[in-house]
């Protein structure tokens, strides 16, 4: 339930979608709109970024009055890093795709993870290149058939496993058709300080929604194994849950809000990095799509803390603030001799 009394939900909308009717990406857009509306985020004071691909149209469809930038293919992470350093007070959300992240942009993805840049990074993952007529992407599962029946001969790149290995501090997976779970994860990702990766399986209704495809709507619904029942609890709100002792784990996020996890079926500690990686790989071996919060590490400092940035964002510093004076310059030059 939203406590937002400052903005209407219409303030979080964008241009009408030009994606195919029924595209999972539009479901993700709607979840972003709902999550940020319920959080009461100022929709004009958000940095929203993307690369190239069907997924990269998404920022056009939410928070139209925010600060948006559509970058070069695969280069969204470096643009996001620069924007976040320039003004870390504006929350950053980047939307990418399985090609934009898992192929041409994988190098940048690794570095935004290891630097723990403070941003929400959503991957709209459909396992196919929709803009270029349905070729396999790097996240297509081994043996999964293309629309014309040809099986994928290569093993997939798992974006969650890569993120955990590289140093991301909040990693989750969801499904575009699971609105409740997705909204809770987006809220928690927003409240996390550091890189929050959400790999969202989003069926391509045109090129990858046929029988046998492991990224199709029906396959995901049949093989989705939720780890937890998630509840996002805003800052300072009392947590009241009627659950058996030991069934519940509450994670406090950096802003004082909480993500409450109720275990479902699988025993999993999201703070255990090795366990998270094993869970992901076991899911691939068992042909299960494990969704929920996979990994969480609140101890690692975010990129801006590591850089020890000034309390005033760089973009707001004037010439006098940036001039250290002749004595400091003299010492600096002497240290380089």
Comma- or semicolon-separated keywords:
single chain; globular; 337 residues; 3-stranded antiparallel β-sheet; 13 strands; Rossmann fold; alpha/beta
Would you give an account of this structure?
With 337 residues, the protein is of the alpha/beta class. It has one domain (9-307): Rossmann fold. The protein has helices at 24-39, 76-86, 98-102, 106-114, 159-166, 179-191, 217-223, 273-285, 303-307, 319-322, 326-335, and strands at residues 47-50, 67-70, 92-97, 119-125, 128-129, 135-136, 170-175, 195-201, 224-226, 228-233, 248-252, 258-263, 289-296. The strands form three sheets. It has an eight-stranded mixed beta sheet with strand order 2-1-3-4-8-7-13-9, sandwiched between helices. Strand 11 (248-252) and strand 12 form a beta hairpin. The protein starts with 23 loop residues before the first helix and ends with a helix.
Judging by the overall fold, what is the CATH architecture?
3-Layer(aba) Sandwich
Query: Which regions have little confidence, pLDDT < 50, spanning 5+ residues?
Result: 241-246
Q: What is the total domain count?
A: 1
CATH superfamily: Thiamin diphosphate (ThDP)-binding fold, Pyr/PP domains
General shape: globular
* Beta-strand fraction estimate: 15-25%
Number of strands: 13
Q: Major sheet: size, sense and barrel closure?
A: 8 strands, mixed
> Averaged pLDDT, please?
91
Which class in CATH terms? Alpha Beta
Helix content: 25-40%
CATH third-tier fold name: Rossmann fold
Rg from C-alpha positions? 21 Å
Q: For the terminal residues, how far apart are their CA atoms?
A: 62 Å
How is the largest sheet built, in terms of strand order? 2-1-3-4-8-7-13-9
Structural class: alpha/beta
């Amino acid at each position: 339930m939203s406590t937002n009394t400052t903005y209407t939900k219409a303030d979080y909308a964008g241009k009408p979608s030009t994606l195919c009717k029924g595209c999972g990406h539009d479901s993700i857009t709607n979840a972003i709109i709902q999550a940020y509306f319920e959080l009461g985020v100022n929709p004009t004071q958000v940095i929203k970024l993307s690369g190239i691909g069907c997924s990269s149209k998404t920022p056009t469809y939410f928070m139209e009055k925010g600060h948006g930038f559509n970058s070069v293919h695969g280069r969204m992470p470096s643009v996001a890093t620069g924007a976040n350093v320039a003004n870390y007070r504006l929350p950053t959300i980047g939307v990418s795709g399985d090609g934009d992240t898992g192929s041409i942009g994988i190098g940048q993805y690794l570095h935004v993870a290891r630097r723990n840049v403070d941003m929400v990074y959503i991957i709209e993952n459909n396992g196919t290149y929709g803009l270029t007529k349905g070729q396999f992407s790097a996240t297509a599962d081994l043996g999964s058939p293309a629309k014309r029946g040809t099986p994928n001969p290569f093993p997939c790149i798992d974006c969650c496993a890569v993120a955990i290995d590289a140093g991301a501090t909040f990693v989750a997976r969801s499904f575009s058709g699971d609105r409740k779970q997705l909204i809770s994860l987006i809220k928690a990702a927003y409240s996390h300080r550091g890189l929050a990766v959400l790999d969202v399986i989003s069926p391509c209704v045109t090129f990858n929604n046929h029988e046998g495809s492991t990224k199709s709507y029906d396959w995901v619904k049949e093989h989705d194994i939720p780890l937890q029942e998630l509840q996002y609890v805003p800052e300072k709100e009392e947590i009241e849950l009627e659950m058996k002792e030991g069934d519940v784990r509450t994670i406090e996020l950096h802003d004082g809000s909480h993500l409450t996890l109720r275990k479902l079926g699988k025993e999993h500690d999201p703070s255990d990095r090795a366990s998270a990686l094993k869970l992901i790989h076991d899911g691939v071996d068992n042909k299960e799509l494990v969704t929920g919060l996979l990994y969480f590490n609140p101890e690692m400092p975010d990129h801006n803390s590591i850089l020890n940035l000034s309390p005033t964002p760089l973009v707001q510093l004037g010439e006098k603030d940036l001039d250290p004076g002749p004595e400091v310059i003299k010492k600096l030059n002497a240290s380089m001799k």
